[in-house]
Specification:
The complex is a heterodimer of chains A (about 900) and B (about 250). Chain A is of the alpha/beta class. Chain A contains 33 helices and 30 strands. Chain B has a single domain, classed as Metallo-dependent phosphatases (Purple Acid Phosphatase, chain A, domain 2), CATH 3.60.21.10. Classes of the chains: A alpha/beta (about 900), B alpha/beta (about 250).
């Protein structure tokens, strides 16, 4: 049963159960219990599983460890503390492990410094991908009492027979940063490891989840504890997220962000950051991408002469560099650290006075968590500024902070029944014993992520791994396990042992290519896959600026600046997380009410279409007044809306869609712009439903650019849809099965190829590492594109193909909600207006620049190729003339 | 598709038919590819051999040819004898002889075809090292340089030629193609596309090929070669590479 704990326990209830030395230490260290501790100490002492969500610096980690240390101390005193692992602590970050290590060793030393009688000391060990062979050997001979590790290393440990012998006494498993795991395959992978661990050692353990807030918490708790045979296991939820007060504002770098030049906005952004850094002792600046982080450090250094007192911190940096930055922060030697995501997690970095977020982090939970990093203690107010970088960003960030004030969180989902992750673990399981199929199936179904796994799917994975999808004679080489169907058993193959160790994990390999401007100026990086799409002359956006692709060399891409140009190719893969549906709807509601306010404003009423920049000093009575934004933001928002109203007389919102038809002179394409304000996961689905329908109806290739607040479809110059055409397309959606339509046509997209590669690698179909050598992504990619074609000849029930479809339709897209929106369009519950515009309306400018691209290829391949032939020959004749 | 009185491409397929020899010519089969990948731990469904059989069956039915010349790289692995490859090689040859009733099978050995000689008698094919001259036609795989200078027609493989194109909405496509034209000395020249299912193709209009086929360096100007592409059940003439290159310019 999942239960929320609302009432804190008294100090005596919390501390009374503790070992006397631990209690003494605790009380000497902390004057009072922090909110999570008031709930957690007693529950963990009672051996209850708990999920604790609270901001960083709230003593969250100690709320978990104190009772465990106490338990181990008691063992030590009774002479029963053995060389065994009692507690496993798993964290998604390697850097974090180091930190916890320091934070555990020091308290243990302090506790023991008071004890005069000789008793055994609690030992702590760390095991990650960086751990040396020597230390790993030591762990086997002298296992630490508390083992600090990562999800991937845990999956290795449970497959190591010798290590496993030391895990029989595990009583506690802590998962830190649960919010970074519960919503992705890495977390799914971990939850299977933990369930396998329970099975391997033959008994359960107390599970403790720590994290920043996420919603709904019930599902996060289920993810943590899973199910016993028939019911969900017990878990208590402690939600102390809102105990820390926060003070945040959206700030706009210029008074008028619509008309200001890019260079001026940029300049002003850096001036602002500089001022904030100067005003505070220590500041963290969060960007949304790694390349953004590099750029900010570069520019701050260049513009203001910072030197050693500013540093970048992100996942691409070496471990030594990251540790160095953390250390300098702790010692107060840094004025400012710039980070993409790595610093938002619970690494101890000492006191941060202020957090600056540059651009929208796309989710309420995330912004709460990032700003929550500032403030000296739990009782302090966390302070932060969100600097907006463009007009949509402005609206998005303001609404996001407003939602945070009102504690409206966005929701997460856990990938369900992922067959690729399952394949990995089946290979792992087969290595440990001969399995009875039913008991293996039961084990898998005890996790939240596989609770509803159909038996057929489980069997199909066994069949795939045993090579049953190929002809009999070839099975020997293909099989990674042996599946004895007659007796309902499966077991391992010796050769698969290494495959498991070398290839486990769920993070796809990507190769990043450096982008250079003339004079070897580094601009940022793009993915190799994106580079292969570029042809000379293409314009694309990197770090908010357009560049023209000139040529590429191995690992570098050479570009020139192309100021003011509309990109011809949007990114094929967005580094940014999608805007959540909940937040998108909040933006819609804001647009609706602010639209009314702006329309009724005297400034607009007296304006007859003549553009001018409005400046307002007094915001009394405006809905912007109560929102956490500065006056520059308010003015820019007002002007943004005013411009849209004067240009199109229509401000799209969540209940009213604007559809614009416009001809792109530069690219010689017809564009249809859909202001579909539902977040990228839903727009991913809706845009493709439209594109497939248009492609089939008119026999054309349709390219797509999907963003959070809308999508753009492009067709060739010769296919211009009329208003009535679009109306009849929407009408034709009546009665369609959106899921079926997408499933049948997703093969025609580029997304399918990329996702298939990821799934193929995760399910050990294509190996990243094989006995001693790493297989390059380029090689993986070449084979997986053609492999997709080959695999299709096997048929639709092939589990990796099925998983690719599932991942796209369930994890990447949000089909159920997309279906609802399509229905609402037909029933006119969502109204839509189709207009012709000479140039895209103000609200579509950002959409055209940012977003993720795809294309729906014509269904009829023969016709498609003939079109292509015609087009090329036309171009050649043009050149000849 | 008829190229000349004597040369013809089996419509839509990577197979050339030479009328006066009543022979089909194809290249770069790379048998055993999936097996070799599987030995490295990768699961790639076996489709290559099946696909080759299907193509050659169609080609024999269309042309009634009684001879097959394989212009190199019948198998995949460079260095060692691989059991998967020989199983497939034997299966293919058996099929060609018994089902398609091809009387004579000739292999011009390519850079991947070491060790084929060991089994040629057992399975009943004739092999030539690097090149074969017959009635002034030179069949030459394409790696290295041909020794023979006196020929009227040269047929090559090895390159895996394709052209890279962008459609109206900017998406890249690669189409496998035959290259047909003349050498600088005026001899007829044709380069065959790869028959292997998994071959990606080398975009001859976007990249320099002289490193792959040294012969191009001094004897053929690729700009004057015509790209005859494999469409869907048809051959599509995209004209000479030089024009394709010019049209792609910014």
């Amino acid at each position: 049963m999942i239960e929320y704990i609302k009432e804190p326990y008294s100090k005596e209830e919390s501390l009374g159960r503790l070992n006397i030395f631990v209690r003494k230490w605790f009380e000497s260290k902390y004057k009072e219990l922090t909110p999570p501790q008031k709930y957690a100490l007693k529950l963990i002492s009672d051996n209850k599983s708990v999920l604790i969500t609270a901001p960083t610096g709230s003593g969250k980690t100690f709320s978990a460890f104190t009772s465990i240390l106490s338990d181990l101390m008691n063992l030590a005193f009774s002479g029963k503390l053995e060389e065994k692992v009692y507690c496993i602590y798993v964290s998604p970050l390697r850097a974090l492990n180091n930190d916890i290590y320091q934070n555990l060793i020091a308290p243990i030393d302090e506790i023991y410094s008071d004890i005069t009688i000789p008793i055994k000391k609690i030992s702590v060990g760390i095991r990650t991908g960086d751990t040396t062979a020597k230390v790993r050997q030591q762990h086997i001979k002298h296992p630490p009492n508390i083992l600090v590790t990562t999800p991937e290393s845990l999956a290795i440990i449970i497959n190591s027979e010798r290590f496993l012998q030391n895990l029989g006494s595990v009583k506690y498993v802590i998962i830190d940063e649960l919010h970074e795991l519960a919503n992705n395959k890495r977390g799914v992978h971990l939850s299977l490891s933990i369930e396998r661990l329970e099975d391997l050692i033959g008994h359960g353990f107390v599970r403790i989840g720590l994290g920043a807030t996420l919603s709904p918490l019930d599902n996060a708790a289920r993810f943590l504890v899973g199910y016993s045979k028939d019911t969900e296991r017990d878990c208590y939820i402690i939600d102390a997220t809102w105990e820390k007060r926060m003070d945040f504002t959206a700030i706009c770098p210029v008074r008028d962000i619509i008309n200001a030049k890019d260079s001026r906005i940029e300049d002003s952004i850096y001036q602002m950051i500089n001022r904030i850094i100067k005003e505070n002792r220590t500041t963290i600046v969060f960007t949304n991408t790694r390349s953004g982080t590099e750029r900010v450090v570069y520019n701050l250094t260049k513009k203001f002469g910072y030197n050693e007192d500013i540093a970048a911190h992100h996942g691409s940096l070496s471990r030594e560099m990251r540790l160095g930055v953390e250390d300098m922060l702790k010692k107060g030697k840094l004025k400012c650290a710039v980070s993409s995501t790595s610093l938002e997690l619970g690494i101890d970095i000492g006191t941060i006075d202020n957090v600056v977020q540059l651009g929208s982090p796309k989710s309420v939970s995330r912004v709460v968590q990032r700003i929550g990093r500032s403030g000296h203690s739990f009782n302090d107010v966390a302070k932060g500024e969100v600097i907006v970088t463009n007009r949509d960003d402005l609206i998005e960030c303001s609404v996001m902070l407003d939602a945070a004030m009102r504690r409206r969180l966005d929701s997460f989902t856990t990938p369900k029944n992922a067959l690729d992750v399952l394949s990995q673990h089946i290979v792992g399981m087969s290595q440990t014993k001969k399995w009875d199929i039913d008991s293996a199936f039961d084990l898998v179904r005890r996790t939240y992520a596989y609770r509803t796994l159909p038996k057929e799917d489980f069997i199909s994975v066994l069949r795939y791994l045993s090579g049953e999808y190929v002809e009999l004679e070839n099975r020997r080489v293909y099989a990674k396990i042996v599946y004895d169907e007659k007796n309902g058993k499966f077991y391992g193959k010796g050769s698969s042992r290494l495959i498991y160790f070398l290839n486990l994990g769920t993070i796809p390999d990507e190769v990043s290519i450096n982008v250079m401007a003339p004079g070897n100026k580094w601009i940022g990086s793009i993915q190799e896959e994106f580079l292969t799409r570029l042809k000379p002359g293409d314009i694309f956006v990197l770090g908010g600026k357009p560049y023209r692709f000139e040529y590429s060399r191995i690992m570098t891409c050479h570009v020139t600046e192309a100021p003011g140009q509309i990109p011809t190719i949007p990114p094929w893969f967005s580094e940014q997380l999608p805007l959540t549906y909940e937040l998108a709807i909040e933006i819609g509601k804001f647009r609706e009410s602010f639209d009314t306010e702006v329309r009724s404003s005297e400034l607009i009423k007296n304006n007859s279409g003549y553009r001018q920049v409005f400046t307002r000093k007094n915001w009394k009575g405006s809905i912007l007044e109560r929102m956490p934004m500065d006056d520059n933001s308010r003015n820019s928002a007002f002007n943004y809306f005013a411009e849209q109203i004067l240009f199109a007389n229509f401000v799209p919102n969540h209940k009213a869609m604007l559809i614009e038809k416009v001809f792109d002179e530069e690219g010689k394409r017809n564009l249809i712009i859909f202001h579909s304000l539902y977040g990228r996961r839903i727009n991913d689905a809706i845009s493709r439903i439209f594109a497939i329908t248009i492609s089939d109806k008119y026999g054309a290739d349709v390219s797509i650019n999907v963003g959070d607040i809308g999508f753009v479809l492009a067709t060739g110059a010769d296919l211009k849809l009329k208003k009535s055409d679009i109306e009849s397309i929407i009408g034709s959606f009546e009665g369609i099965d959106a899921a079926e339509l997408l499933k049948n046509n997703i093969r025609r997209t580029e997304m399918m190829k990329r996702r298939f590669r990821y799934c193929a690698a995760r399910s050990f179909m294509v190996l990243r590492n094989y006995v001693g050598y790493k297989i390059s992504v380029r090689k993986q990619q070449v084979s997986s594109q053609l492999m997709l074609k080959a695999v299709e000849e096997i048929g639709g029930d092939f589990p990796i193909l099925k998983e690719t479809y599932r991942e796209i339709l369930e994890d990447i897209m949000d089909l159920p909600r997309a279906g609802t929106i399509i229905k609402s369009l037909i029933s006119k519950d969502i109204v839509y207006k189709i207009i012709d515009t000479p140039v895209p309306s103000p609200f579509s400018h950002m959409m055209m620049t940012f977003g993720e691209a795809d294309v729906i290829m014509m269904h009829d391949r023969r016709r498609h190729l003939r079109e292509l032939h015609k087009e090329v020959m036309k171009r050649i004749r043009g050149v000849k003339k | 598709m008829k190229i000349t009185e004597d040369l013809c491409i089996v419509e839509g397929y990577p197979v050339l038919f030479i009328k006066s020899m009543n022979a089909l010519v194809c290249s770069d089969l790379h048998l055993g590819y999936e097996g070799v990948m599987a030995e490295k731990g990768n699961f790639i469904p076996k489709v290559n051999l099946k696909n080759i059989k299907r193509i050659l069956t169609h080609a024999v039915n269309e042309t009634k040819a009684d001879r097959l010349i394989i212009d190199g790289d019948i198998k995949n692995e460079f260095s060692k004898v691989h059991i998967e490859e020989f199983k497939e090689l034997r299966e293919l040859v058996d099929y060609l002889k018994s089902e398609l009733e091809l009387g004579r099978i000739t292999l011009i050995k390519g850079n991947h075809d070491n060790f084929v000689d060991r089994v040629k008698n057992r399975i009943g094919i004739e092999t030539f090292s690097c090149e074969m001259l017959e009635n002034s036609r030179l069949f030459f795989h394409g790696d290295g340089m041909p020794r023979e200078k006196l020929y009227k027609l040269i047929v090559m493989g090895h390159l895996h030629p394709a052209i890279t194109l962008y459609n109206k909405v900017g998406v890249k496509e690669k189409l496998h193609c035959f290259l047909y034209g003349k050498t600088k000395k005026g001899q007829e020249a044709i380069v065959l596309p790869a028959m292997n299912y998994f071959a990606e193709g080398v975009g001859v209009n976007t990249q320099d090929v002289s490193d792959i086929v040294p012969f191009f360096r001094s004897f053929i100007d690729i700009n004057n070669m015509r790209a005859l592409c494999l469409g869907e059940r048809e051959i599509m003439d995209f004209g000479v590479i030089g024009n394709l290159r010019a049209a792609a310019g910014p």
